[in-house]
């Protein structure tokens, strides 16, 4: 037996306005629900969904996109080499979170790498043609021109990790300062005295904040801060090897290392073992991200967990919010647009 939805008052296909009237909400609220925006309450969403079902309303995706000057596509832009994207768990976890949230919408996802000047120019031309409704920016460095370009083009965008304390774009970040502090406080509590830091790239605000957390924990515990024991890397395994080699040359008696990523910690571990240092007996080691690498290392790596999957989901939800609300950013305030998610230390045998 066929089941038919309620007919429109006009006798034709139900309209968005009729769904709104049936649900007792405004047309814009119906649009938000249909487009997957998180900026509606559960009760309102349920009322709209019930009205859609009762009327048999079917969104005309193509017509809606055309009428609203929409493409129903968003871009995940990564200004890093493809090799790094596929080698580091951070990116796959971020993509997993974005994908989980995206599955609840009708949007399509484009993955775009923009590591070189040539790729950035091509991306700028692509975005200027407004071929996507919004952009997610992941792993952005302080001097990257892409965020400002998106702002100028008035393309909704959300950035993963602020570029500075004064970030102007909507952003989703983790508590990098707290994470750095947790790592060093843990090492101090384990009786370690000479604690080095293999930092990430210091043109990344998150890496700067981890260094700030490292310094704060040492200072609060009454330890002197030796700037020679802070060596910047690039979040890669090779960077971890180079940095660890430099640290051992500067201070052969160090007894703990806080690495700015699990991948760098893996590189550091290789150098420590080649130098005859036992982990954790001689040198305690702490990483960052709490990725699969941390769990599978020998010994298992103590690491600071940042909720990367949750960050990806939050980025997509915030971007959908931005797309649904196209008012100028300055008129909306900054409070709801700067999200910072908590970090926590996961202790394992490496420390």
UniProtKB/TrEMBL annotation:
Residues 14-68 form the HTH lacI-type domain. The keyword Transcription applies. It comes from the Bacteria. Keywords: DNA-binding, Transcription, Transcription regulation. One of its GO terms (molecular function) is transcription cis-regulatory region binding. The keyword Disulfide bond does not apply. It holds the Pfam family LacI. Gene3D superfamilies: 3.40.50.2300, lambda repressor-like DNA-binding domains. This is LacI family transcriptional regulator. It comes from Streptomyces aurantiacus.
